[in-house]
Amino acid sequence: MIDLKKIWQDVCQKIIGLEGVNAISYSVWIQPLKPVCVKDNELILLAPTQNMKHVVNRSYREPIKAALKSTGSFFTDIRIISEDETPFYTDEIAEYSEKESVAEERPSQFIARYTFDNFVVGESNKLAYHAAQSVAKSPGVSDNAYLSFNPLFLYGGVGLGKTHLLHSIGNYVNEHSPELKVLYTPTEQLTNDYVEAISNNRNEKGVFNLHAFREKYRTVDMLMLDDVQFLQKRTGLQEVVFHIFNDLYQAGKQIVLTSDRPPSEISTLEDRLRSRFEGGLIADIGTPNLEMRIAIVRKKMVLEKIAVNDDVVNYLAEHIDSNIRELEGSLAKVIFFAKLKGLPYPDIETAKEALKNSVQKKSGIDSSDILRAASEYFGIPQSDIISKKRTKDVVEARMIAIYIIYEMLSLPLVTIGQIFGGRDYSTIIHSRDKIASKIKQDPATARAVKDIKASVSE
Ligand code: ADP
Ligand code: MG
């Protein structure tokens, strides 16, 4: 008998990172699917709603098929169905359900390879790592009477391991305290749930109303909310989150939050929620240094059971320095190139060839890339940034863009002045120096510079 659950678990493990599937889309669209049977060599997956069926069909068919293929399964096609179609499959479902009930174990909502063991610890993430471990070992309880880990708030740029740590907590608790109910939710999904809940309330049909929404989130032992910078300022949403937070907190339940920036810089956050988010431990995750990047590449090689020369490891770690997701992707690419060439393991030439574009792109940054990134970051049109406008936010964006262009491109001041609508070079010096000193005093400015730089280097 085919073990559908096992096959589906393997698919889930392989799918993240395939084109169009990140941790968020995975937990919103892929994870809720249920393998129900195989018919005519197709794996039949049940989607919880019609809408989900359509979205998965439209956007995730190919990655699911690719992941299925890579598990070595003999059936390589899939069909997504919704509840009303299950009658067409009753025979097949019956055939599989026996197995299902034997193996009935709650399928984990956590990605199996995201564990503490697989997480490389270094200077840039050790506080976050140890705090996450402490929370996993004693949720809701503080190690130290003077230091509360509730909530634990982890923040850092994209691809630096926040989601990995949340899943590590989840996997750890599932293993060591299976009686505890842990809920992991990307903020996007919480928002979707909320929207569904309030619309059902209005129509008075359906059962998932605001009450059910609150119950879902406040009846757990641990709530992990990923990427709270996406918590929209939407009537009622932050209020209900605030109440859920309080209920959990007062009941001594653990709350873990992540974001790409600290609470103080999430401008869409209501003050009372911000102060709740700041009430426990805030730990940041920074970009890894070279030594750590080398350790990460080595770790991935061990996990994937592949051999790579030291010079290839060093090349990767030296050139891919923005985030860990990119580092992983680059390693995968190098390995893939070596396979195509029929090499037993990648050599340095193959690595250079595989990463030609990403490495070259980095040195090929120009001022328009920086202007574009600054414009996106601040939500101010590029034409305003280079104009003579003197409103506060435009001036701020302009000075930061000047500073970054100066820093990253080392262009002559006169040239930078020309880029900014023919400004005098003394104006450029003034902006540059102003931001250089502001970075030291104002975390928001420092973060803006860091984020814009990171986004042009991507
Ligand atoms: P974030 O949620 O911060 O955007 P993720 O947790 O999704 O980042 O991490 C991106 C990828 O990098 C994941 O595949 C994760 O396993 C890996 N990763 C991140 N940090 C580490 C680390 N310290 N050690 C090993 N792998 C890591
Ligand atoms: Mg994440």
Automatic annotation (TrEMBL):
CDD domains: AAA (cd00009), Bac_DnaA_C (cd06571). One of its GO terms (cellular component) is cytoplasm. Residues 339-458 are annotated as: Domain IV, binds dsDNA. Residues 148-287 form the AAA+ ATPase domain. Signal peptide: none annotated. SMART domains: AAA, Bac_DnaA_C. It is found in: Cytoplasm. Domain I is involved in oligomerization and binding regulators, domain II is flexibile and of varying length in different bacteria, domain III forms the AAA+ region, while domain IV binds dsDNA. Gene3D superfamilies: 1.10.1750.10, 1.10.8.60, 3.30.300.180, P-loop containing nucleotide triphosphate hydrolases (3.40.50.300). Plays an essential role in the initiation and regulation of chromosomal replication. ATP-DnaA binds to the origin of replication (oriC) to initiate formation of the DNA replication initiation complex once per cell cycle. Binds the DnaA box (a 9 base pair repeat at the origin) and separates the double-stranded (ds)DNA. Forms a right-handed helical filament on oriC DNA; dsDNA binds to the exterior of the filament while single-stranded (ss)DNA is stabiized in the filament's interior. ATP binds at G159, G161, K162, T163. GO terms for biological process: DNA replication initiation; regulation of DNA replication. Residues 1-85 are annotated as: Domain I, interacts with DnaA modulators. Keywords: ATP-binding, Cytoplasm, DNA replication, DNA-binding, Lipid-binding, Nucleotide-binding. The lineage of its organism: Bacteria, Bacillati, Bacillota, Clostridia, Eubacteriales. Oligomerizes as a right-handed, spiral filament on DNA at oriC. One of its GO terms (molecular function) is lipid binding. It comes from Candidatus Stercoripulliclostridium merdigallinarum. The keyword DNA-binding applies. Residues 366-435 form the Chromosomal replication initiator DnaA C-terminal domain. Belongs to the DnaA family. This is Chromosomal replication initiator protein DnaA. HAMAP family: DnaA_bact.
